[in-house]
Amino acid sequence: MNGDPADLTIAAAAAAMCAGELSAAALLDAVRRRAAATEAQLHAYLTLDFEGAEQAAAAADAALARGEDLGPLAGIPVAVKDNMCTRGMETTCGSRILSGYHPPYDATAVARLRAAGAVLIGKTNMDEFAMGSSTENSAYGPTRNPWDPERVPGGSSGGSAAVVAAGSALGALGSDTGGSIRQPASLCGVVGFKPTYGLVSRYGLVAFASSLDQIGPFTRTVADAATLFEAVAGHDPSDATSYRGPVPEVRSTLEAGPAGLRVGVVAELAGEGNEPAVLAAFTRTLEALQGAGAEVRELSLPSMSYALDAYYLIAPAECSANLARFDGVRYGLRLPGDTVEEMMAASRRDGFGPEVTRRILLGTYALSAGYYEAFYGRAQKVRTRVIEDFARAYREVDVLVTPTSPTTAFRIGERTDDPLAMYLADVGTIPCNLGGGPGISVPVGLDGQGLPIGFQVLAPPLGEAVLLRAARAVEALAGFSARPAPATSGVG
To answer: What CATH number is attached to the domain comprising 396?
Structure first.
């Protein structure tokens, strides 16, 4: 086998192992070497567990030696975002308040990865409690973009996007509340897929906003994203919001191509506000789709203009309720106080960072007596309009498309003092979470500075088959194969 195994796709690595050309141990060793070469610069992992990974890789190799029919993830090194519980492995959510917390159980998505034979190598860095768009809000320091270490990888799942781009994992799981899978995927030049709300269990995912959060994969190809999705999706009785029906079958139409697809361009998200290079790549991809037989038309979804405002009332309101449980009593950071109230106040004051504190305060205010209907109630009405606009659009088209992010990766520190500018990074991704349907970002090019550009495809709830078909068509037409240059030992 030629080349570094750390640069393989999941499908190629699985095929090489089945053919006897590669062992799980050798693949893990290649990924370990890549992590050793990149982590000092990128800081994409918070925890690495190569001892446990070696045991899992050895088990996969032993099964292969016995001639067992292994699944497509057997022996594949993967990482998970540090807001998913991992039995015995520290889970911090990028926050001081959970420093030292070792869950006694695995999140359902993590357990399903292990059951599929995947080799879990570590937990990735993230914006604290998934609140951010740059992975600068981590209490443990920022993650840097493999394409340019002076720039952010996006967020909040920036660590997961960075390890796949850098080759220190072949796939990873992230969580997406308002774009936290798709936006970092765009900025790091990888595929990021948010499934329909409820298709992947949230049991063991530390909640940010419970009606919006969804786990999904980062990979190098759309086919690999389908593989990870199939491994973790499905009903879970431990999650009351888990979808009870069958998981959509996505393989049979994955290579069906764009001919006959009805593609709608969301007018409110595909024009002013996007960088020229982003719009140029978006237009070029649309023209390629049309040239390959897709029917492309522009649609107006008026509620998209208000989705960002609604999100930043709904999500903080839900986070203010969810984060009330972190009080220094049962787990995590506990600071001394003369009374229980003083202990809780001190623990929360020092345990939460400024962005989390800001959102808790916003949410508490939006839910307070006298303001509930004016803020939270009206935001939920906008959410209903978003859902209605999506439903109307999907009666006319099969998928909707937008630029994933209005910009390419911005410089570290560039937006930390301007929360509104940071929030605008998710303007194209937030509506999908409010509507509950699936969305995916596919890399389609580089800007003049050599930074990746993502193309977003959206579909109706449970429309994973047509979503992945369209995404695969975009991937094939764009032909994006660029990889970031190998990292050096220092930050430039």
So the answer is: 3.90.1300.10
